Amino acid sequence: MDLCDSQLPLVENDVLNLSDFGHDNEGCSSGYDSATELSSSDKESDTSISEKDPSSAEPEVMKYRSTQELCNTLQYILSLPDLCDVMFLVGEKRVPIYGMKAVLATRSRVFHNLILEAQRQSPVSKKSKKKSKQTSSLSNHIVIEINKYQPEDFREFVTFVHCGKVNINSTNVTGLYCAATEFDLSDLKIACRDFTTKSIKKGNATSILKSAKHYLPLHRAANKFVEKIHRYEKSLNG
For burial by CB atoms within 10 Å, which of 42, 96, 106, 174 has the most? Predict the structure, then answer.
């Protein structure tokens, strides 16, 4: 698979393994108590209780989680403006990209503050109420202008915020990295770094640097990102 077209699903694991995160076992329990030798009287007592009262046995419980269907549902909702309550107007052409404030605000403190500020400045709470097509659309959504991103990069970012999965490629990795930095999503930053590291090892740094040019005058994070790419290239070349 070409690394520039790789897909990084970040929330599709059904089991969380603490050892994967480098934690030791201190303060953690396996969920099972250590075996303890029972006296003969204890055994008899335990046996008699279970025979007399079958309902005293602990009920069997199975925990089941399916994240994929939830992700698919959220992604579908994002394609339906009427079901969303936030509208981002992105880039010079003010491309509308939709989201849900409950998800956005809980995933990022920066989004939370932007949404609160937009609600305070909403035209609905002020004077004008013109019945143009655009105004009626605006009145149904919290409107937030996003000027420093390419629309498709920001759309991919909003999808990640809602669904926890993202398609990273050499064209959007810089934009995603900048958004992850600005909106404080460390897991996406790590994914962007991992993708970039693998791409550089494959000799694909040029395409990343080319697409990064758009973000260099707009984001400090883009400049740091490009510097890291150059440093890593030098370290590989000796």
Answer: 174
Q: Does the pTM of the predicted model rise above 0.85?
A: no
Answer yes or no: do 71 and 161 share one domain. Answer: yes
The answer to whether residue 174 is domain-embedded is yes
> Assign residue 27 a region: left if phi > 0, alpha if psi is -120 to 50, beta otherwise?
left
Same domain, residue pair 153 and 197? no
List, as one string, the DSSP characters of 10-54. Answer: SS--S---GGGGT--STT---S-PPP-PPPHHHHHHHHHHHHH-G
Can you state the angle between helices 186-201 and 220-237, rounded to 10 degrees? 40
pLDDT digits (tens, 9 = 90+) for 28-50: 333 334 344 545 555 555 555 45
DSSP 8-state code for residue 142: E
φ, ψ of residue 144 to 5 degrees: the values are -130, 125
* CA nearest neighbour of 99 among 78, 80, 79: 78
The model's pLDDT over 136-149, given as tens digits with 9 standing for 90+, comes to 455 689 999 999 99
